[in-house]
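Task: sequence design from structure.
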């Protein structure tokens, strides 16, 4: 019996050992290496999310454009547009076949961009035909526009484009409309960029400068909307992480020969060049001196050369200890004693505007009472910085910002523009020229951005505007004011300011 048991045990051991594969001493090492490689690859993907941030490669539209990638949409639903969309060799056309319509093409993305440090939208567009001025009555209609639906980093879905642009601003989609007809009441230019008719215009915007930043990009739509007749063109579009190259951007130079092109370029938030009139030059330039800028050149350009000699009406390159002829004013009335000596100060030749005591409107003012009818162009320029802000946007009344440029004038119809009422819709025909610079987006629907230009906190920003593009044109400039207003605490600075005319 014992012999049988031993024999059975021996047979079992022989079978077990013969069925086992030899152990490879390197197998555990290889397994560890694979795990390490996987971890390294994952770390590299997290550290370099470039691939996930290049959402739309440079796309030039033509007859061969894949319509499956860019389906037609009506009010952001995939529908037949009734012939309003046409792909041509010159780009995609947005036409008006209906009396009042909205149609476009969509690129669905649904892409997580939370790891992207930058996300540059670039498009070359043309506003060809327009009937409804500006961006329409509702700030959402233009011959050509770019729309982006997204969820922000606070998990708020931006999917709204309401009739009232001040409604639910915290849910408003990114929308930029391009127009050439100056708005007349009840139309306005909310979220609009004025361009030259029939001239290619390159627009660039870094979506990561939005506040709050995008977390997910759901779709991008290129569209046209508004009354018949209208026609817009998009030649190309891209949405990439890499910063586009920046060409030289022309601004008018005193007693100099400047070369410009009929293709204008706009880059918002960081660098923006916004055309306010049709000419070989760009008449409203808002250029931010920040490293996060970018524009690109357009190949279809017609180069023109124009010589402009400018007359200095006001020119301040250094404020010193206070420019001659300017007085400290509160609501445009001279004050001999400030609440404190800190509200209007001059440091190293820079004007500083600070709120210390209350919700006031204080700055410096210079009386001119100069007739400007001899000028074909009248440029107002300022280099300024918004440092601190408490009241968001341009306040509840569209007239409050850390820093603003304000001008009282009489127009060619002999109407005096001296009003800045609590309700910006009151007396629009008498409203002063007012541009307020802010960096805080409206915190609720109670606040507006009326008359405002958004800038980046603590970044110098150069503003330029041709007053002769106003309708009606100015006849007499009565005074100019550089002021800050709004809740405590706010602070801003201005390093240079000028008003310069170009004669016919």
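Answer:
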């Amino acid at each position: 019996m014992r012999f049988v048991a031993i024999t059975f045990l021996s047979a079992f051991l022989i079978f077990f050992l013969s069925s086992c594969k030899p152990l490879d001493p390197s197998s555990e090492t290889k397994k560890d290496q694979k795990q390490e490689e996987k971890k390294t690859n994952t770390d590299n993907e997290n550290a370099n999310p470039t691939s996930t941030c290049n959402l739309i490669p440079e796309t030039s539209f033509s007859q061969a454009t894949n319509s499956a990638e860019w389906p037609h949409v009506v009010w952001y639903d995939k529908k037949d547009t009734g012939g309003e969309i046409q792909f041509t060799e010159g780009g995609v056309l947005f036409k008006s076949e209906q009396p009042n319509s909205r149609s476009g093409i969509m690129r669905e993305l649904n892409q997580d961009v939370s790891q992207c440090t930058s996300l540059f939208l670039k498009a070359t567009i043309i506003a060809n035909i327009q009937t409804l001025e500006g961006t329409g009555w509702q700030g959402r209609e233009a011959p050509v526009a770019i729309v982006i639906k997204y969820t922000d980093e606070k998990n708020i879905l931006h999917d709204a484009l309401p009739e009232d642009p001040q409604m639910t601003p915290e849910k408003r989609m990114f929308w930029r409309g391009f127009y050439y007809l100056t708005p007349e009441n009840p139309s306005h230019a909310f979220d609009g960029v004025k361009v030259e008719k029939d001239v290619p215009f390159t627009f660039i915007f870094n979506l990561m400068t939005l506040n709050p930043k995008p977390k997910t990009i759901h779709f991008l739509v290129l569209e046209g909307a508004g009354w018949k007749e209208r026609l817009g063109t998009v030649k190309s579009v891209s949405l990439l992480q890499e910063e586009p190259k920046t060409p030289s951007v022309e601004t008018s130079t005193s007693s100099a020969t400047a070369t410009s092109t009929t293709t204008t370029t706009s880059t918002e938030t960081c660098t923006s060049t916004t055309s306010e009139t049709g000419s070989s030059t760009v008449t409203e330039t808002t250029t931010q001196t920040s490293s996060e800028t970018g524009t690109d050149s357009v190949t279809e350009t017609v180069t023109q050369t124009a010589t402009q000699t400018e007359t200095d009406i006001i020119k301040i390159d250094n404020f010193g200890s206070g420019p001659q002829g300017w007085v400290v004013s509160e609501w445009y009335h001279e004050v001999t004693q400030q609440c404190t000596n800190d509200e209007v100060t001059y440091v190293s030749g820079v004007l500083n505007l600070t709120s210390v005591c209350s919700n006031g409107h204080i700055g410096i003012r210079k009386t001119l009472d100069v007739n400007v009818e001899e000028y074909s162009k009248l440029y107002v320029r300022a280099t300024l910085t918004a440092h601190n802000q408490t009241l968001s946007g341009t306040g509840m009344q569209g007239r409050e910002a850390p820093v603003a440029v304000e001008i009282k004038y009489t127009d060619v119809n002999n109407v005096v523009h001296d009003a800045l009422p609590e309700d910006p819709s009151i007396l629009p025909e008498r409203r002063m020229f007012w541009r307020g610079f802010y960096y805080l987006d409206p915190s609720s629907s109670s606040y507006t951005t009326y008359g405002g230009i958004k800038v980046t906190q603590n970044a110098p920003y150069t503003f330029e505007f041709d007053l002769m593009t106003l309708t009606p044109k100015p006849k007499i400039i009565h005074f100019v004011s550089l002021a800050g207003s709004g809740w405590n605490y706010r602070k801003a600075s201005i390093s240079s300011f000028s008003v310069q005319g170009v004669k016919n």
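The radius of gyration is 30 Å.
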